[in-house]
Amino acid sequence: MSDINLLKRYRMDEPKSREKYESIYHSEFAHIIGIPLRQMNASHSYPAFYYYTETMVQILSDIMMELRDLSILADRLPGVAIHSFQRTCLIEEIQSSNEIEGVRSTRKEIQNAMDESQNNRIRLWSMVHKYQKLQQKEEIPFRTSRDLRVFYDEFLADEIRRSDETNLPDGKLFRKETVEIWNGTRIIHRGILPEEKIISYMDTALAILQNEHIPGLIRVSIFHYLFGYIHPFYDGNGRTSRFITSYYIAKFLNPFVAIRLSITIRKSLRVYYKLFEDTNHQGNYGDLSPFITGFLWLIQKSIHRVHDILQEKGKKLFSLEKAVKASPDIPSQKERKIYDILLQAYLFSDEGATVEEIAHTLGQSTRTIRTHLTRYPADHIEVDPSHKAHRYKLSEHFVQKLEQLALRQRNASHGSL
To answer: By 3-state DSSP, what share of the chain in percent is helix, strand and coil, each rounded to 5?
Structure first.
């Protein structure tokens, strides 16, 4: 079915848009959702529905093709590079998700929480460890409203308690009182009330999320909108919704894409808020199809960005690895292998690699690696001592020397042709 934007038609000709809505809603193509949508302060609500469009199908097809290319690219990269990139993305993802909600969190706080496996009293520990489970594809149940509340308590309750304990849920599962949603400058929506209705609507939304008769990314997009519309908690709705969305994207696509979602949304925040605002509008008549299309575009944009970053870093890595092999400053093959790891850590990580990571990758003891690292010139290596396990990578100074050597190698290669 071709795309039909009811809101645009409404703004041009309201009576004709109403006729079009009636014809779509009552057609065999419409999938009705048992949740009525109403624009804030409007007198009339419309049942949510959606239908499949040619644009959706095209984006889904493009996503799968681009995902294949991303997987091929990632498979070509060495393990430390991939692990370092995942860690860096995860830190930025958590920070971005917090920033969207106006919650300040530093990279250092997130890094500390990642390094602590047991100390759950550290700020952001619960949130960070849920994201690590996402990367590892551990199963988290999201089937009922009670599952959602259990997850919320594990994921964000401690963080909410630290900032304002009165924002914790005060109902049986969710909130008892009203909550207002801002787009940064003004109120655009008020969450559903009473709590019984929140629970009923959320169970409906979760049932859609689990419905395997609906394509995975379609149901994820629908759920993401419905969660925002219902707004079951006083605080933490956005962070919870984005995690659940990322969790399913990791299952359906790739953890790389999942841990770039909040980063993509933060960089497209006006588009993101407008998707919600337009979908809520009474002239949209409850049609979720434009939201689904827009959200699929954001997912596709995440894949684009991950691919571009890995491709750029991968090209640089392969170029500089040749320089490592030819560098007169690195005396032996054994040392070159360690320098390769330190180069990957420099290019793909903000922090570096631990001695344990280097030793595991090379199949050597940590004692042997430490001995080697202490022998290297101070201007070759950058050490981050702020972690319990110090992190190591090549210094910017030495990487610049490798880049100069790589340039000479390329010039010599061109000259011999």
So the answer is: 65, 5, 30
For residue 274, give the nearest of 291, 260, 299 by alpha carbon: 291
Structure tokens that stand for 55 in this block: 């644009």
pLDDT at 413 > cutoff 80: no
- Give per-residue pLDDT as tens, 329-360: 998 999 999 999 999 999 999 899 999 999 99
Answer whether 63's CB lies under 8 Å from 300's CB: yes
Predicted TM-score of the model (pTM): 0.93
For residue 282, the surrounding DSSP H or E stretch is none
Question: In Å, how far from its chain's centre is CA 74?
Answer: 17
Among residues 290, 216, 203, the alpha carbon closest in space to that of 21 is found at 290
Reported as half-sphere exposure (CB side, CA atoms, 13 A), residue 74 has a value of 18
CA 328 to chain centre: 42
| The token pair that represents 19 in the structure block | 């006729």
What's the CA gap between 178 and 303, in Å, rounded?
A: 37
Q: How far apart are CA 190 and CA 156, in angstroms?
A: 21
The CA-based angle 325-326-331, given to 5 degrees, is 75
**Cα–Cα dist 194/407, whole Å:** 67
Whose CA is closest to 305, among 272, 262, 335? 262
